[in-house]
């Protein structure tokens, strides 16, 4: 495993934000990610909270706009944000559409040509990146949680529900909560996974939660003025129904007047970080 | 005076971030600005805090990255952020350099061709924009303060020191504090004000503070790892010396390891907003 290359770093709330690149064996090319190391990480290991970003985002949007570092410093959490896809892989069509290919990896392991050669974001996020982080940063490998926004909310729910022993808690902002029923999900899944819709269910949070084996309450915020809610891209009500069927504890908050932007994310980031800190930080639990 | 056109808005911390454009008579063209209206403004007038941004920024950077809305909502302050220059004015050379023309108005009223036709940012910020805000938003016209970053820190200090009755308080992040002695300032002032350096002193905070008539303590933060500090662009020590000469109260904090980015600004934004709220908000003063 190659070590991450530090591209740039900035002090922030007593810790440091760093941008990194490395060669990914899962994605067979360069991947980028950002890390916020809280001040507590200078003297001891800390829990780690992964954030998965939405369509068109890079590893920078969340670090620059969400206001999470103040809270990560308060609770002593490391933040790790991967990019949303491989880039410049040479895959035909990767830059043609904003909702497929570059910036739109959907946290899936593609099985179809031409995507399968590089678009292995699920394995990257659940295996390769944590290995790299555990080896190179002062984190407790057994104290990790995950959250995300929009496409990344889908990704966070899928990663947690498929690996309930790995992730201690999960939350999401405006997730694509039932992608096999949404236009974005149908487009991405048909490209990455092919036409057999049975295979799609393995990356659909509203299907996965029916397994009933995630042990911690799930927190989801969605803005009522989110245009993608009205378009049927998010479908939190489908996820809610699945949770009810199996008794999965869910706090679904419909936030009056909020849209899909980071102005929405930043408003409720404190509740989400606290949701994770309550589970990850011994002194709070 | 034409009313501002709302371009887009987003709910944020119980209030609303809005982006506007309007025809500016001072700059003879379209100008843009952003406003954060805190929840308190729905039911009463509130004090207003202007933020002036740095080179290359627009009216968006601060709103997206500084994390100020949480605090403006807490204290009940309206935030107003103008763009950093006129744009697409047709002025010859306006887009040639990143540190002159577009994105680099320096909050000066230009007296030289070709700039003087549109680059009247000082008058715009101290007169036209406040008139527009006072008329169209729920603010107390006699409760306004100003702060800024880098070029905008210079602008904020100049606006406040030249108008000590208008601005109740001032603060700055990494300001160009003695522009007539810095490469950025020398370049901009020679373009906008001509070769007579005597005229430059009227837009130099370290000269203006010698008048000794600003009544409130000034807060300035500068990161010790700021590359522009090492390059002699900021010169906080010159401003500090001027303050000492006339007994101007100054809290100058050299923040160990911080750079020039919004990761630095966001870390200390709470102290700055509180600095202004202590003066602007009756219940705190």
From TrEMBL, chains A, B:
Q: What UniProt keywords are attached to this protein's entry?
A: Hydrolase, Serine esterase
The record's active-site residues are 150, 226, 260
Q: InterPro entries annotated for this entry?
A: AB_hydrolase_fold, Esterase-like, S-formylglutathione_hydrol
Q: Which Pfam families match?
A: Esterase
GO MF terms listed in the record are: carboxylic ester hydrolase activity; S-formylglutathione hydrolase activity
SUPFAM superfamilies per the UniProt record, alphabetical: alpha/beta-Hydrolases
Q: Mention one GO biological process in which this protein takes part, according to its record.
A: formaldehyde catabolic process
The EC number(s) given in the record are 3.1.2.12
| Catalyzed reactions | S-formylglutathione + H2O = formate + glutathione + H(+)
- Which GO CC annotations does the UniProt entry carry? cytosol
Please report which protein family the annotation says this sequence is part of.
Belongs to the esterase D family.
- Chain's role: Serine hydrolase involved in the detoxification of formaldehyde.
What is this protein's record name? S-formylglutathione hydrolase
To which species is this protein native? Answer: Lyngbya aestuarii BL J
The gene coding this protein: fghA
């Amino acid at each position: 495993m190659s070590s991450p290359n530090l591209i740039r770093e900035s002090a922030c709330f007593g810790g440091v934000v760093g941008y990194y690149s490395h060669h990914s064996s899962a994605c067979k090319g360069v991947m980028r990610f950002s890390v916020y190391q809280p001040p507590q990480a200078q003297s001891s290991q800390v829990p780690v909270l992964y954030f998965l970003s939405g369509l068109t985002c890079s590893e920078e949007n969340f670090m620059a706009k969400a206001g999470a570092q103040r809270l990560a410093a308060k609770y002593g959490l490391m933040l790790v944000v991967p990019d949303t896809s491989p880039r410049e892989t040479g895959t035909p069509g990767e830059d043609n559409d904003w909702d497929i290919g570059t910036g739109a990896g959907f946290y899936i392991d593609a099985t179809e040509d031409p995507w399968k050669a590089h678009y292995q974001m699920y394995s990257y996020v659940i295996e390769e990146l944590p290995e790299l982080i555990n080896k190179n940063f002062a984190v407790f490998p057994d104290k990790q949680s995950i959250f995300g926004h929009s496409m990344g909310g889908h990704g966070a729910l899928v990663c947690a529900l498929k690996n309930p022993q790995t992730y201690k808690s999960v939350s999401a902002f405006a997730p694509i909560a039932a992608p096999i029923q949404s236009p974005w999900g149908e487009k991405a899944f048909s490209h990455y996974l092919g036409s057999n819709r049975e295979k799609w269910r393995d990356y659909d949070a509203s299907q996965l939660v029916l397994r009933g084996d995630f042990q911690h309450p799930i927190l989801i915020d969605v803005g009522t003025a989110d245009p993608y809610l009205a378009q049927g891209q998010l479908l939190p009500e489908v996820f809610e129904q699945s949770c009810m069927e199996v008794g999965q504890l869910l706090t679904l908050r419909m936030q009056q007047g909020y849209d899909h932007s980071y102005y929405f994310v930043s408003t409720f980031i404190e509740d989400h970080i606290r949701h994770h800190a309550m589970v990850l930080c011994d002194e709070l639990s």
